[in-house]
Amino acid sequence: MDSLIAPLALAIERRLGYPQKLADTIGHPVVWFGKLISFCEIRLNTDARTGPQRKLAGLVALALLLLCVLIVTVGIRTILSWLPFGWLVEMLLATAFLAQKELGRAVEAVSEALRQSLSAGREAVSHVVGRDPQALDEAGVARAAVETLAESASDGVVAPWFFLVLFGLPGIALYKAVNTADSMIGHLNDRYRDYGWAAARLDDVLNWIPARLTAMLITIACFFVPGASPSKAWATARRDARKHESPNAGWPESAFAGALGFQLGGPRSYDGEMVDLPAFGTGKAALGASDIMLALLLYRRTLDVLLAASALLALMLWIS
Fold this sequence. Notes:
Blueprint: H1 5-16, H2 20-26, H3 29-44, H4 51-81, H5 86-94, H6 100-116, H7 118-125, H8 138-185, H9 197-221, H10 230-240, H11 250-260, E1 264-265, E2 268-270, E3 273-275, E4 279-280, H12 289-319
Antiparallel strand pairs: 1-4, 2-3
Helix pairs in contact: 1-5, 1-12, 3-4, 3-8, 4-5, 4-8, 5-8, 6-7, 6-8, 6-12, 7-8, 8-9, 8-11, 8-12, 9-10, 9-11, 9-12, 10-11
């Protein structure tokens, strides 16, 4: 019955998400990871250390994080394997590491807020992006929301699912721990360039296959979205993905751009400093609230394709 864990986790998390009462009571696993990452960073990433020493300290911190997650999740999985319906509990625990429902809700909130006013849209998008929202016009807010939706479809849904299929609960938890570490310390600034190097590189390695798989899923999903182009989705991903500074993030972003006839990316502001970034796609750049909703439709059809593929894979494993 282990083969049913991945498709059932996808279906249940998409419908229910992570219960708010549970989050209020015990928190969220990602928050627990974040606390351990912060604990180590404060103590290990000190100004007295040289660059190589910071790299080593970051590697030690990452190893400690992964060791803790591995011990806990393997222990839980071992205990659950002794129980008659332990696989169902493992499936429910795995839903905590997927972000289908919350991602869709957060991006839809940007569309709704942008319909009210630009200031409301900026406030809503500030919860899902790291760039300076006050520097964004209406099109900038919409593009930021769509870009986040595309990239997070990969590292928030497809990649966790991928490692759940391969390695069960330990796999999805370990992936999420690395991804959380990368988001917190994998930055190219003076404080984290060396200390976060190991987390950033490992995150790149783990997302290499899922990012390209996401682009494929988006391409297939285009067949179920009126006006979307599967041929342009894949062609744009192959042409433009390499422009991104990340070896992976450009794949889902470019696929979304090509599929919907958008132009994503371009210059943006971080902490008041303009950063000149490449554009993905050659289509419409002046996006608005309705374009966010169109992107959400493509996102949901992509989730449908992923669920269907997961169910088919489970059936094949069960038959064999």
